[in-house]
């Protein structure tokens, strides 16, 4: 299985007044094509920070973020290096290979549903494809395509956020408590859809969740505690 992204000996902390709080302590991991991982851990343990680092929303203090190079060997991306190769490689990864679903949906509110999904495609110079129709059909949002997103319910907005994140068939989907704002039944439905759709596009999922039921949809569980990742479960059947 090929590696999509790897972290090597990552450290990340934040200053809290005069004290420094180490959030990620020498964390190493790799994410592979088609792999599904639930990231659990106490509140404040650094789950969102880890996702933000992989998504490039947050800088690391030390360590390496590695992406496959053209020859498929892992190459370190130095995020403070502005050389064109680094820059292009990193921004191409973020544009083409990454889909992100946040707890708060983060949809573009002046736009309707279709334009939200199309905007994300356009960043990648991609047009609406049969896969997008298929996604919307499976997510049950076809009738909503012309509706402004702010007129939708939480569950509907979450489905749109998932369509937007998967429309360009990313290699990696980062989801931060994607069902956190939904009731249990809607949450389970969204989880089942999300995992099924990711399977269809062979997308790797790294998903933060507090729910054991949601975590059970993933093959592997990584538990983050005191800055370290402990792999706790591997579901043979998933
Ligand atoms: N931008 C930031 N500035 C200062 N502290 C932060 C920032 N982001 C996160 N933290 C702190 O880092 C710790 C981990 O946060 P977070 O990754 O959001 O945890 P989790 O998602 O597991 O609840 C918390 O103590 C949080 O207050
Ligand atoms: Mg969080």
TrEMBL record:
The keyword ATP-binding applies. The keyword Isomerase does not apply. InterPro entries: AAA+_ATPase (IPR003593), ABC_transporter-like_ATP-bd (IPR003439), ABC_transporter-like_CS (IPR017871), MacB-like_ATP-bd (IPR017911), P-loop_NTPase (IPR027417). GO terms for molecular function: ATP binding; ATP hydrolysis activity. Residues 5-238 form the ABC transporter domain. PROSITE patterns: ABC_TRANSPORTER_1, ABC_TRANSPORTER_2. Keywords: ATP-binding, Nucleotide-binding, Transport. Belongs to the ABC transporter superfamily. This is ABC transporter ATP-binding protein.
